[in-house]
Amino acid sequence: MRIIHTDPFKEDYKKLPKTIQDKFDKKILLFEKNIHHPSLRVKKMKGHKNRWEASIDMFYRFTFEIHNDYYLLRRIGPHDDVLKKP
Fold it and tell me: Which among 4, 21, 22, 25 is placed 20 to 30 Å from 59, CA to CA?
């Protein structure tokens, strides 16, 4: 499946520390191969019809939607910030 990034996701990514960008770049490879890889800890977000979250590490997350032929990456950043505006 294709992966599409929203403009807010792209802006969030630019603001991340380089070390977190590097971690995400590795995690997205796992995500492309297997969305259910254990280290991603993917889970459905409560209160949203088609919104999911995945872990980069214990502090950083990214949110996404699942569509028929693509994943839409919505936001990325610190856990609390991302969950406030998924």
Answer: 4
